[in-house]
Specification:
Layout: H1 6-31, H2 45-68, H3 74-82, H4 91-113, H5 121-124, H6 141-162, H7 172-191, H8 197-204, H9 209-214, H10 217-237, H11 239-250
Protein name: Aquaporin Z
Transmembrane segments: 12-35, 41-64, 94-113, 139-159, 171-190
GO molecular function: channel activity
Length: 252
């Protein structure tokens, strides 16, 4: 990754973030609830949507993770920068790219979804995140903030742990993809699951004023959770201590 050009890094982050929003939100919008001729739901439901989000990250982490690090998420980029896994100079360009890519994916989904007669992005919610009356089960602002902070923090712990020098090599995308699947199984009933500001912003543009008025939470809470993990991972896992001990052992 260190030898990748800036253009290659940006291109990889664009592709990965676009695929995450298109695949994950697309599964929710186009296949989450589908009625057959007897008006019986045959959609993929929460489990299917959760798997879709996990699979987008798993596949693109394998495809372009070696180019950019495979963040696809502003909260992940900030958390990794706090943990000294990426230089801060990359943070602005990564975040701008991720938001643009998520919005582009949202726009493509909007065009596709409007190909169905009677579709309304505002009425359907368009896979946007929300609290209160926009939460799938009307969870409070506090409940939604807590779940987003906790889920994002643990997502970063998995990312930091799976990519730690001490971890088994080559398995990080699998662990990260499965973690995101689990996160969605917990979070969809509460907030529709964000843990990713680019994912939230990308569809909020098309879901009406209500979604845009609440999207602030799904920027602030994931970043707060990522920051918690970024600051605490090395302290919890003794990563720096291990490096010091190895240095002493190698230089008695």
């Amino acid at each position: 990754m260190d030898s990748s050009t800036p253009a290659a890094r940006i291109g990889a982050e664009f592709l990965g973030t676009f695929w995450l929003v298109f695949g994950g939100c697309g599964a929710a919008i186009l296949a989450g609830v589908v009625l057959n001729t007897d008006q019986v739901s045959v959609g993929i439901g929460y489990l299917g949507v959760a798997l879709a989000f996990g699979l987008t990250v798993l596949t693109m982490a394998f495809a372009v993770g070696h180019v950019s690090g495979g963040h696809f998420n502003p909260a992940v980029t900030i958390g990794l920068a706090i943990a000294n896994r990426i230089e801060w100079k990359w943070v602005p360009s990564y975040i701008i790219t991720q938001i643009v890519a998520g919005s582009a994916a949202g726009a493509v989904l909007w065009v596709i979804a409007n190909g169905k007669p009677g579709f309304s992005a505002v009425d359907s919610g368009f896979a946007s995140n929300g609290y209160g009356d926009r939460s799938p089960n009307h969870y409070s602002l506090l409940a939604c903030a807590i779940v987003e902070i906790v889920l994002t923090a643990f997502f970063l712990y998995v990312i930091l742990g799976a990519t730690d020098d001490r971890a088994p090599k080559g398995f990080a995308p699998i662990a990260i993809g499965l973690a995101l699947t689990l996160i969605h199984l917990v979070g969809i009933p509460v907030t529709n699951t964000s843990v990713n500001p680019a994912r939230s912003i990308g569809v909020a543009w098309f879901a009406g004023s209500g979604a845009l008025e609440q999207v602030w939470l799904f920027i602030v809470a994931p970043i707060a959770g990522a920051a918690i993990a970024g600051f605490s991972y090395s302290k919890i896992t003794a990563a720096h201590k291990l490096e010091v001990d190895e240095g002493v052992a190698n230089n008695p």
